[in-house]
Amino acid sequence: MSRKQGAAYTLGFSALVCLVCSVFVSFSNVSLKERQELNRQVDKQKNVLVAAGLATSDEKLSSEEIVARFQSIVPVAVALRDPNQPKGEERKPGSGAVLSDVDATAVDMVAAMQDENASLREPANKAGILRVPYVGVVYQVMEGDRVARLVLPISGKGLWSTMYGFMAIAADTTTIKGVSFYDHGETAGLGGEIENPSWTARWHDRRLFDDAWQPIFAVRKGATGSVAEDPHGVDGLSGATLTSNGVTESVRFWVGEYGYGPYLKAFREGGR
Ligand SMILES: Cc1cc2nc3c(=O)[nH]c(=O)nc-3n(C[C@H](O)[C@H](O)[C@H](O)COP(=O)(O)O)c2cc1C
pTM higher than 0.70 for the full model? Predict the structure, then answer.
């Protein structure tokens, strides 16, 4: 084979290999998309179950087991902002109304927060939340036909990252029943301890609101006592005060007037 032919052969062969590989990659990407979406859904359901106390974070569960446990949970779509509010107008709290014509299982709040067509810009706030989705989701944990708990998605800025989690509260809308953080970029061993089940267990039965329904729950610096001694506070993470403060502000934002507050008020007054 001549030198010239050799080069042409090498180039042609490389191009063919590239073509075959790209066809293979595109094909697997398309064929795996559905499966990836399903896995994402199941993963989200597992995190909701952990917050709701229906699974533990270290429990190995198959997709079928997760889906089966999720049977007692009804996701509902809730109005967090008015999509008809003119852009640039001062923000208003959402109505908190349950949107029965919206399929709550199809609502992706994390994606909506990055989508100008699905969320409204939020003025500067201590939780570092940039946009609030028009539509939020509340997971109602049923016991028979009674709503026993509500699981709320929460998010906000820590020191290095946006932290995402779920928090379960009792039907009184103030008593915390569980929390789980499933995504963040805080430092392992410091802020990353928000994932530690022995820390999140300390949240159990602490309360979100004061008597006037203002959110006062806080991750305090240092240790707190029992629930009776400090009903509204949980121990800070040592060496991670900035992450701890971010958690406090995130919780307060989402249960407050500009988060799920209007929904929670309607729920406790009307039991829906
Ligand atoms: C490498 C490195 C990583 C850190 N990661 C975190 C973190 O994830 N969360 C946090 O709040 N503080 C973190 N800190 C510490 C903060 O800079 C700050 O000192 C701390 O939040 C103060 O908390 P303390 O008053 O409990 O010590 C980190 C510091 C260093 C040097």
Answer: yes
pLDDT at 89 (0 to 100): 82
Residues spanned by the domain of 207: 73-270
The answer to whether residue 39 sits within a structural domain is: no
Q: Does 143 map to a domain?
A: yes
46 in a structural domain:
no
Ligand 1 pocket list (CB less than 6 A):
159-160, 186-187, 190-191, 238-243
Q: How far is the centre of ligand 1, averaged over its atoms, from the C-alpha of 242 (Å)? A: 7
Residue of the CA atom closest to atom 19 of ligand 1: 239
Question: Structurally, how many domains does the chain consist of?
Answer: 1
How far is it, in rounded angstroms, from Cα 49 to Cα 259? 22
Ligand 1 nearest atom to the CA of residue 160, by list position: 8
Say how far apart CA 102 and CA 36 lie, in whole Å: 23
